[in-house]
Amino acid sequence: MEQSNVCEVRNLSFSYAKSGFGRKKAGQGSSISDISFSIKEGEILGLVGESGSGKSTLAKCIAGLLEPSQGTIEKQKVQMVFQDSYSALNPAKTVGWLLEESLRLSGVKDKEIRREKIRQMLDEVELEEEHLDRKPSALSGGQRQRVMIAMALLANPGLLIADEPVSALDVTVQKQILGLLKKLRKERKLAILFISHDLRTVYGLCDSCMVMKEGKIVEAGSKDELYCNPKTEYTRLLLQSAGIEWE
Q1: From CA 81, how far away is CA 84, in angstroms rounded?
Q2: Which residues contact 231 (CB under 8 A, 6 or more apart)?
Q3: Neighbours of 10 (CB within 10 A)
Q4: Cα gap 4→205, rounded to integer Å
Q5: pTM reported for the whole predicted model
Q6: Which of 4, 36, 64, 135 has its CA at a distance of 20 to 30 angstroms from the CA of residue 159?
Q7: Is 170:89 a contact under the CB 8 Å cutoff?
C-alpha cells in the first residue's frame, strides 16, 4: 500500500525584513524561494547545504514559527527538535515538569494519564525515571537531546523536524541518538526531516535527500541517486568537501 504524505510543500517562499540600508538585520536567517517537496509517512528526508543556504528558515516555516510570503503547506502535526538543547529547555524546571507541560499544552488534563504517558515515553527514548527530578544542567548533552525528542513526541506529531540534532554531541552519543531516530521511525511510522551539514550522517540515516543553495532546492532524489550520480556542480563540491567519492 502506498504511503500517504504527512507534509506537502508547494512553491514556498519567505523573505526576512531588511534594515534601512538594504541589509539583513543581525541574527536573521536566509530567505527561501519557490520550494516544493513532500515527505511520506515513515520517510527520513535529509536536507543539506552550507550555512546560510536557508535550511533552518525552511524548517521554521514548516513548523509554523515563520509565516511564508507565498506558497502552501499541507501537513499533519509538526514538532521540532533544535540543535542547542541546553538553550531550548527551561533551566529552572525539572525534566518531569517539562514533559508534563508538553502534555498539558496538548490538552491532557488528567495528572495520572500524564504520568503514565511520561513513563511510557521514558522507555521509548531510553531515559530512566530518576532523570525526571533533574534540571537540564544536570544532564549530559545526549540526555538533554532525548528529553527534547520526548517532549516533541508527547504531542504525537506526524512529522518531526530535527535541525542539526547531533552536531553538538560526541561521536558515540551521535550514534545513539541516530539509532533512536531510526527506531522511532520504524515503531511510530514517524516522518523525519533531518537537517545536517554532515553528508556522511545523512547518508547513513536518510532515505532521500535535498540540497539547498541560496534559498533554493538545487537537487533532490534518493540518497543513492544523489550521492552516486550528483547532477549539479554544487552537490559535487559538497560531496568532495565531505571526502565522498562518486562514480
Answers
A1: 9
A2: 219
A3: 14
A4: 21
A5: 0.91
A6: 135
A7: no
